[in-house]
Amino acid sequence: METSLVFFPQLNMCESKEKAFFKLIHGSGKEETSKEAKIRAKEKRNRLSLLVQKPEFHEETHSSRSGHLAKETRVSPEEAMIWGESFDKLLSHKDGLKTFTTFLKTEFSEENIEFWIACEDFKKSKDPQQIIVKAKAIYEKFIQNDAPQEVNLDFHTKEVITKSITQPTLHSFDAAQSRVYQLMEQDSYTRFLKSDIYLDLTEGRPQRPTNLRRRSRSFTCTEFQDVKSDVAIWL
């Protein structure tokens, strides 16, 4: 009995030592890993600091900025003048579309051109499943009530789209796209041709910085029925 009483505590003591040993090993391993990570992070910061101090780094940054500015001003006055011939010619030109989008952002109405572009892309869809997915995305982003970028459409046009959205076709948004196109052409396009953004290009002047802002969502006719048309229609 005395032997067994002495023997079992020794086993327990051995087990405790083993647990303490493994805990010490694992703990030191984690500590070592943490130290190595800190060392590597410090080395990365040092390398980055040396890179920033190199003159060639600043030259590359400056050249990339200059290249970006060059891209912004690469439109010639002759090209810009063509945009003034018709709204269709403006939208069919890559830089014209980009410049008009920038203008709409200053008037809180970029959802109109983004919807038009989305419809153009949608009509190129060929796969039936792709048509369903894209139609649903356009509907949720631009058409349904309280959509994040809801465009201003009459009740009948929205109702027709809503009823057909479960079985869309490539022509599901034709009426809505035509409506938005007409409103941009009659309203936004006219103001665009008188804007500094456009006139600076036609006269070859350096582009001025634009104050781009974004509102939460579009105004709608039902919310502002008593407001003048040039304000009620998105702008």
Automatic annotation (TrEMBL):
Keywords: Signal transduction inhibitor. One of its GO terms (biological process) is negative regulation of signal transduction. It comes from the Eukaryota. It holds the Pfam family RGS. Gene3D superfamilies: 1.10.196.10, Regulator of G-protein Signalling 4, domain 2 (1.10.167.10). Residues 86-202 form the RGS domain. PANTHER family: REGULATOR OF G PROTEIN SIGNALING, REGULATOR OF G-PROTEIN SIGNALING 18. This is RGS domain-containing protein. It comes from Gulo gulo.
